[in-house]
Specification:
SH3 type barrels; 3 domains; mainly beta; 49% strand; 232 residues; Ubiquitin-like (UB roll); 1 helix
């Protein structure tokens, strides 16, 4: 007799600010049954990438798949991981366009971590430095620096300190170089993100009626428990 499989939860999000375009959609089936996700289409958006394969097999463990989309007006979007060193005061905009007034000015000497680069139809390069915060590349005003070693070292030192202070009891076990969304409530609105590999403090957890385990990350939000590995 075939048994019902644990569900696959499907989300579609705007890659620039993580707003939900569609979902959560529950994909159901029986253990061992294959599934294939057809990319939904949205007006004024195009598909970029996903957190996993669009086909697979349903099993005993719950799965989650997020498809990311960008505005159709973007010529190209790339996931990166670099620092921007600012050489002079520069304006920041709410989207990769300077058609509207700047939302703030960032000072010379500041450093910003960016994970997204956009090329516009006008062949301009824009870097995301926060949700709805974009900086246009200007030669001589912005210096790009690779950061992997520095970030890894900072994360390791921070984790050691947290563990010494007994402030952590779990680690984020998501996808390499990806950010895990944290919500204001289970299945709720994204309010924070945390990088894969970060050490965190889980101060509450429960299992809902769908047998999905949810973990509350202290001061940050709720995460799907399959992406949180307890240390003890």
């Amino acid at each position: 007799m075939l048994k019902d499989a644990a569900p696959l939860w499907l989300y579609c999000r705007n890659i620039s600010n993580n707003t939900i375009l569609y979902g959560p959609k529950e994909v159901q089936g029986q253990i061992g049954e294959r599934y294939r996700i057809n990319q939904p289409n949205f007006d004024n958006y195009r598909f970029v990438d996903a957190t996993g394969e669009l086909s697979g097999v349903l099993g005993n463990h719950e799965q989650s798949l997020t498809l990311y989309y960008c505005p159709a007006t973007w010529a190209q979007v790339q996931r990166i991981l670099v620092y921007l060193e600012i050489q002079k005061e520069l304006p920041v905009y709410s989207q990769p366009s300077d058609d509207k007034a700047a939302i703030k000015i960032i000072p010379a000497g500041s450093k910003w971590l960016t994970r997204l680069r956009v090329t516009t139809d006008q062949h301009e390069f824009w870097y995301q430095i926060g949700n709805d915060e974009w900086l246009q590349f200007e030669s001589g005003a912005v210096v790009l620096k690779e950061h992997e070693d520095a970030i890894a070292n900072q994360r390791y030192q921070a984790a050691e300190k947290k563990q010494a202070d007994q402030q952590v009891n779990a680690i984020i076990d998501f996808l390499p170089e990806q950010l895990l969304d944290l919500a204001d409530e289970p299945y709720g609105k994204t309010i924070n993100q945390v990088p894969n590999g970060d050490y965190v403090m889980v101060d509450d957890h429960f299992q809902d009626e769908n047998e999905v385990t949810w973990c509350h990350i202290k001061d940050l939000g709720w995460a799907n428990g399959i992406y949180v590995r307890m240390l003890s």
